[in-house]
Amino acid sequence: MFANLANLVRYRGLIQSLVARDLKARYRGSVLGFFWSFVNPLLLLLVYSFVFSTVMPNTTVGLQPYALFMFCGILPWTWFSASLSEATTSLISGGNLIKKVLFPAEILPIVSVLANMVNFFLGLLILVPSLIYYHHLHLSFNLLWFPVTVLVQLVFTVALGLILSALTVHFRDIRDLLFNILTLWFFATPIIYSWQQDNVRKYKQLFDLNPFTHLAITYQEVFFFGPVGHWKWLLALGAASVALFLAGYWLFDRLRDSFAEAV
Amino acid sequence: MTPAIELLNVSKIYRRYGGRQFATLKSALLQRSILRTLRPSETFSALTDVSFTVPKGSTYGVVGPNGSGKSTALKLVAGITKPTTGTVRVQGRISALIELGAGFHPEISGRENVFINGIMLGLTKRQIHERFDEIVEFAELTEFIDAPVKTYSSGMYMRLGFAVAIHVDPDVLLVDEVLAVGDEAFTHKCLDKFSEFRRRGKTILLVTHSLSLVERFCDEALWLDAGVARSHGDPTRVVSEYLMSVEASEEHLMETTTAKAVAAADEHVQQAPSEPDASRPPENMFQAVEGRWGAREVEIVDVTLLDREGKPGFIFHSGEPMSIQLKVRAAQPNDDVVFGIGIFSAEGVCCYGTNTFLEEMNPARLVGEADATFAIEGLDLVEGTYKLDVAVHRRDGAPYDYHRLLYTFRVKSRTHDVGIYRPRHHWTFSPNLQFPAARDDD
User: Fold this and answer.
1) What is the model's pLDDT at position B217?
2) In this complex, is the C-beta atom of A34 within 8 Å of any C-beta atom belonging to chain B?
3) Quick one: closest CA in B to A94, which residue?
4) E-assigned strands of B191-321?
5) A1, A191, A254, B33, B200 from B38: Cα distances, Å
6) Which residue has the higher pLDDT, B440 or B49?
7) Which of B15, B43, B81 to mutate to test the interface with A (most CBs of A within 10 A)?
8) Following DSSP, what letter does each residue of B339-355 receive, concatenated?
9) How many CB atoms within 10 Å of residue A251?
10) Arithmetic mean of pLDDT, A130-146
11) Total of domains in chain A
């Protein structure tokens, strides 16, 4: 297992070019091309702004502009959920590679996660200027928590991606199951509402069990609220994610030989 | 010499996918064991206890019918799947021409795909840069290299895949029946490339249905049949053993075809004995429909095809003797009997037809059972499947028993000449036209 894990480093060139290929292929043939990576989050932000300032205005003090507050959580969530959906089916759609070429299968889910991470970064190019415009984001050491949060989310997502992709080869149900779980998970995470609301705080222990709560809160603290007070939870999640990654990689490695036959 | 590829007692068992095997997560969770449901209940053995070694620098051919485990063996060597039992050892860098262009992304250009495919096969970006022009030139795609791969024809796609894989510069090259991808010219180019590999001391493992390629090209060969190694060693010997087995199974096929046709014709007669056309020939005798008719005052009870040694069979070699033996039985003594024979090609073209009346032989008397043998001194037909008409009838043509196209036999030949009839012939040349050593041809 650890030899395989070490091989991952050797494959970084391959991972790099596959991520680039995914991103290139995604917008090939469309008029705006790569611009969609900016336009999509921009349009989303405009829609939310319209809905939450005009259609059903939310005027909670401290969460203004509300659309921007939501956006701080939605962007990382989009990265997370899109990564998992793609990673889950990555082995099946990449079946040709696994069956016909000697190919390190774990690269496929990892590429799904990384390609979506790039999109996440591109979305930040919309988010960050908006935050600066509304005087939410200040240059400070606080921002150093951002790469840490991204890293924790990366490890966590890759770990889940490995597990789900390996299991989906044998249990195709997971694909449909995941779609519904992600919807539920989204609403169970303080993204479109704040964890500081009283009716949320009542269930704090339950929310603490949700790993993405801690990621969402840290992103909101980094971008929106100021000082990061949630870092202990974040680091704990980071440690748990590394453990989950090792467990996931172990499972993936055990099932590896069955992929070429079952895909 | 050190072996480049070594398989020791390798078996590979695949699980079969039945309806029940398609486990769902629910059933796995209900049984509280995910790994247990992954264990196969019904299995299929693709390879059974196969061992062979390929010395470094040699070319090794694997032949066998479809489903004999050739591709599985190749995948094991490539490391794509693992053997169920036994060990596979390979030394050096492998490049597998198993599925060409696997991993090409249709939306992006040929150029970008070359890079990604090359990296997948283990090259670095710099190495691909160095070889890029050579790859594109080999694939004959200079004009189209910047077009998206989805616009390529299947031939272009395969050529590009082949070009990338062959330029990986492996120590061990695995080839799975990929020479069929290009046109004649490209196939020659590929063969030249293989020859170059051999000269440079690389090892090639070749899976193919082209037996002549194995004979011409390989140092050693292996014949797999239903996952079992039937024979290995000298390619010419292995190929001829394989061909003999193919012939035997073809013979069996001819036998069943013939038996079926005879049985079907009989059944037709029995089912409708009162129907007028059951005992009468069809309107148009040139229509190639199988059947049997006649009142059977004289009945053909058995038809046997005999080879040069007098052994019954269904496969004959072009130019060799063959006999058609008719066993007939007359209900009453009869003096108005004509025996007829017709040979038809598979398309229903009459190759030859004759009868004893045309050849001015008139039997004076037939009592009880008798044999009539039509002996052909040399079966001068080109390779193919042929069908036979046999009949006994009156001098005026009214049939006693007519068997139409019920008997099938096959003519084999090592010469791939065309047509139906092969006249006995030889070529002569004036002395200033010289040939290298005569081709080994029967």
Assistant:
1) 84
2) no
3) B103
4) 203-207, 220-225, 228-233, 291-293, 298-306, 315-317
5) 20, 38, 12, 9, 45
6) B49
7) B81
8) EEEEEEETT--EEEEEE
9) 16
10) 86
11) 1
Contacts of B25 in chain A (CB under 8 A): 167, 171, 173-174, 177
Domain that holds residue A58: 2-262
Q: How many interchain CB pairs under 8 A, A with B?
A: 79
Cβ atoms B199, B223 nearer than 8 A: no
Burial of B364 from C-beta contacts in 10 A (0-12 / 13-18 / 19+): exposed
**Mean pLDDT value of segment B283-299:** 74
* pLDDT tens per residue, range B316-330: 989 899 999 999 999
pLDDT of residue B21: 46
**A13, A29, A173 ranked by CB distance to B119: nearest:** A13
Q: Which is nearest to B159 in space by CA: B132, B187, B122?
A: B187
Residue B272, both tokens: 């409708």
Contact in structure between B201 and B57 (CB atoms under 8 Å): yes
With CA atoms as reference, report the closest residue to A77 among A188, A196, A228, A159.
A188
Instruction: From A60, A116, A112, select the one nearest A91 (Cα to Cα).
Output: A112
Cβ of B99 within 8 Å of Cβ of A174? The answer is: no
Q: pLDDT confidence of B354, banded at 50, 70, 90? A: very high
d(CA A109, CA A80) in angstroms, rounded, equals 13
In terms of Cα–Cα distance, which of B397, B131, B407 is closest to B262? Answer: B407
The string of pLDDT tens digits covering residues B381-429 is: 998 889 999 999 998 888 899 998 889 898 988 788 888 889 999 888 8
Give B3-244's CATH code, choosing from 3.40.1440.10, 3.40.50.300, 3.20.80.10, 2.40.50.100. 3.40.50.300
Angle between the A145-170 and A107-133 helix axes, to the nearest 10 degrees?
Answer: 140
Least confident of A236-250, B98-112, B334-348: B98-112
Whether the pLDDT of residue A148 is over 70: the answer is yes
Domain B250-412 homologous superfamily, CATH: abc- transporter (atp binding component) like domain (2.70.50.60)
- A191-229 pLDDT, tens digit each: 988 888 888 888 888 899 999 999 999 999 999 888 888
CB contact under 8 A, A171 and B28: yes
Q: Where are the domains of chain B?
A: 3-244, 250-412
Average pLDDT, chain B: 83
Look up residue B312 and give its DSSP letter. B
Distance (Å, whole) CA B360 – CA B363: 10
SS3 B109: strand
CB contact under 8 A, B108 and A260: no
Please report which helix (H) or strand (E) contains residue B55, including its range. Answer: strand B43-55
Q: Which run of H or E residues covers position A12? A: helix A12-27
pLDDT for the residue B179: 66
Contact yes or no for B81 and A25 at CB 8 A: no
Dig out the tokens for A176 from the structure: 């449909």
The model's pTM is 0.73
Residue A117 has pLDDT above 70, yes or no: yes
Question: Closest by alpha carbon to B279, among B297, B263, B258?
Answer: B297
Residue A229's pLDDT is what? 84
Window A:45-104, CB contacts with B under 8 Å? 96-103
